[in-house]
Write a structure and sequence with these properties.
With 194 residues, the chain is of the alpha/beta class. It has 8 helices and 5 strands. It is globular, with a radius of gyration of 17 Å.
Length: 194
């Protein structure tokens, strides 16, 4: 039992350390991302989100917070956000017929417009389908926000990069969730006040 308790304690401490390091190195980038999101929404733009696996779940979670609400007692309209990870018919048809690497790029090209935001999430920073979506979004005149770890091509591709200072997938994912919640909260505060 003691070894399991130590594992629990160790994971929580290490996760807290990664969040502490993120608070030191990423707060300006998180602020820049929130300002871009607010500017987009004030200009009648929308938010598209792309990622794989756990990051796909993050996309759906974040889109739900924007469309529904983040703060429980806030009565506000829905904010236009689309997780590009949710259309199973499109994802399976395109992957089967053409290939998986273009599933997000294709949706960005069809749904995106200048001034929109693409939030691209990849813990490794090497997800080709996410990178291709970012490149397509930039060509369209969209603003791209990359959530990643400390390495990878996504960090060199997106307009605004929030790079969690870790290489451990689980710790990056846990920190991404905190950042995503912060972005939702800052957006609501800016658009709808206290």
């Amino acid at each position: 039992m003691e070894s399991k308790l130590q594992l629990i304690r160790s994971h929580l401490y290490i996760s807290a350390e990664v969040k502490r390091a993120t608070a030191q190195s990423c707060i300006y980038d998180i602020y820049r991302a929130s300002e871009a999101i607010v500017k987009c929404l004030k200009s009648s733009g929308k938010i598209l989100l792309a990622g794989n696996g756990g990051s796909a779940a993050d996309c759906q979670h974040m889109a739900a917070e924007f469309m529904s609400r983040f703060r429980p007692n806030l009565d506000r309209p829905g904010l236009p956000a689309i997780a590009l990870t949710t259309d199973v018919s499109f994802l399976t048809a395109y992957s089967n017929d053409i290939g998986f690497k273009g599933v997000f790029e294709r949706q960005v090209m069809a749904l995106g417009k200048p001034g929109d935001i693409l939030i691209a999430i990849s813990t490794s920073g090497e997800s080709l389908n996410v990178i291709l979506a970012v490149e397509a979004a930039i060509k369209l005149g969209m603003i791209t926000i990359g959530l990643t770890g400390q390495y990878g091509r996504l960090g060199k591709t997106a307009n605004i990069v929030i790079a969690v200072p870790s290489i451990i997938t689980t710790l990056i994912q846990e920190t991404h969730l905190s950042i995503e919640h912060i972005l939702c909260e800052l957006t609501e505060l800016e658009l709808y006040g206290e």
